[in-house]
Amino acid sequence: MRDNMKPCQHTLSDDVIYKEVVVVGNGPSGLVTSFMLAGNVPYLKREIPEDLPIDEMLRARLLNLPPGQNLLETDLMELAEGLEGRSQNPFPLLMDNLLRPCADLGFHADPLIEWKYDVEKQVEHVVLGRGPPGGAWHSFPAELRTLSPAAWLALPPHATICPAPTPAPTPAPGHAPSPSSPHQRQPARAVAAYCRRYVRLCNLQRFFRSGVIVTSITCAPRGIGPPCSNPNCPRSAAFCVSGYDVHEGRCVRFVCSRVVLASGAADRPARPPAALAPYALRDLAELHRLPTGVAGPALVVGSGLSAADAVRRLRGARVLHLHRAPPAALAALPQAAYPDYHQIYKMMCDGPSGNHHNYTPYPDHVVVEVTPLEDHENTDKKFCLKRVKLLNLVTNETTEVTVSLIVVLIGSRPDLFFLQTNFNLSNIDVKKDCIKCFNEQKQADKGNIDQENQRQCFLKSHWHYLKSVLGQSIQSCKSRYLNYTEINGNSDTKCIIPECNERDDDLKCKSRALEKVENGFEECKCEVIPYTDTVDRKVKCQCQPTNPYSSGLGFGIDPTKPVDGRSNPIAIDKSTHELLNAPKGIYALGPLTGDNFIRFIPGGALAIVADIHRQMKTTAE
Fold this sequence. Notes:
InterPro entries: FAD/NAD-bd_sf (IPR036188), OSGIN1/2 (IPR029731). By secondary structure, the protein is of the alpha/beta class. The chain has helices at residues 28-37, 56-63, 76-80, 90-99, 150-153, 188-201, 284-288, 305-313, 328-331, 339-350, 430-433, 449-461, 463-469, 510-518, 601-620, and strands spanning 16-24, 40-44, 113-117, 125-129, 145-149, 185-187, 208-210, 212-219, 239-245, 250-261, 268-269, 280-281, 298-301, 319-323, 359-363, 365-372, 386-392, 398-403, 405-408, 412-413, 440-441, 507-508, 572-573, 578-579, 586-588. It folds into 3 domains: 16-137 and 187-264 and 565-620, FAD/NAD(P)-binding domain (3-Layer(bba) Sandwich); 271-410, FAD/NAD(P)-binding domain (3-Layer(bba) Sandwich), CATH 3.50.50.60; 429-518, no CATH class. The strands form 8 sheets. Strands 1, 4, 7, 8, 9, 10 and 25 form a 7-stranded mixed beta sheet that branches. A 5-stranded parallel beta sheet has the order 12-19-13-14-15. Strands 16-17-18 form a 3-stranded antiparallel beta sheet, with no helix packed on it. Strand 17 and strand 18 (398-403) form a beta hairpin. Helix 1 runs parallel beside helix 15 and helix 4 (90-99) crosses helix 15.
């Protein structure tokens, strides 16, 4: 924010850059946040069309505001009260109603707000992204079509992402809209190109720094002496954001007063079980890079929109579709607007009795085993012929199929490893909440406590020997069979030792597993350090196969579960979008907070920027 105060005389070392705000992520969330931080302010238009059927309570509240009211200086929570829609956050719903009035009713009305540039509202900031502006949109298959029409993909102040100067008229019934129509679904390459164009059209180039991988966000160390009265004094920085610039080949550091998380929720595709991982493609981009024709049958695992896209991509080949119940996301799509998805949804619902050409569904099945055919010449496991054993969870019958390609599309989650330093392991009861740990054995009778303690001491002293006896350690409690859980869900597999999944009391079942190995029974493949704390008796979890901080454990609405943009978004203060389980000054928006459609992202940015301006104004006073 510009001011006429005496310039700050405090300086930083040459390798540290001060910014008031650092935005992590340069996708649509980062773009619109930068647009507002750059001094572009939303104002309410002086007149609201009387024939526009907006929410009556919202209309009454808007009419009570002075004409041309600055929304950054308005009680936004009061305006958003009672609004309903496809977002769980009030400000995204409010902003969507103001930018696209009655969009869900099929209207294409003008926005109820207008944007004005105010140099006094400009906040010094930087937007950091791994790639070019657009984020994950550059990684999607170029021809993959969006769910939303062009008008719902545009960011303020634009009405559509199409470069055409004027939108096309609404198409007549029975006729497809033109490619530049705001009603037309767009390919991913059009959205990626729009994001790059957006930075230039809105004059935001100086705020963006591409090719930077953020590695950590930490609380800034206390400086030498107090900050001066200037609100932009670097001594007032609360956070240090570290990263690596791949273009310059060096580390970079920013200190700032606030951090905005706009990194999206599609960084980490869900990991297939170990039996499938060497043989499976894990994202649509890999599939689209293959030649159009697939030599043999293909197995698609998943029940969401991405799996449906894979089935569409493999048209012409024989597709075996392993899925659970058809998801609500497919069922909610209207047939007229999404005939392609509706057809796949119908085939999934018809089941094996549907008798569709080149499509065989396998509902309620899991993959038990994958065996590459030895006589095949192709050395790449992903593209050689494979025999796959499937288990029907309803009938317990097994089926063997031969496929040349396996595509596993079971969702994705955000990668929040850079927040690791704000996470406190002592707040999580691993023994209770880690679903991948070795499950606890029932507590022994009081008379056997001494014997059990002796066993545990023996395990402590002979851990390396036991590790060799039990065979090579296998990550995160995986079974050689995939157990009775749906592969395309978020649940995990269990060990072949039955007692391994009974989490009851305090002692581990390692000794029991050792006894079974010595007697010739199944071998327990779980890997865990079998000891407890003498102070708080918490089991030390060592079974996480990846960076334990990547999942964002501790930041979600349920802090004991990984952050997920659909089922467990980051917990925020709804009025400011500030994180609840993090140091004050860290914000989040977009898919991280459950707003998975671009149309709802500007509302989160409005909440963040309004709160930043309120705090800076308070500090200046």
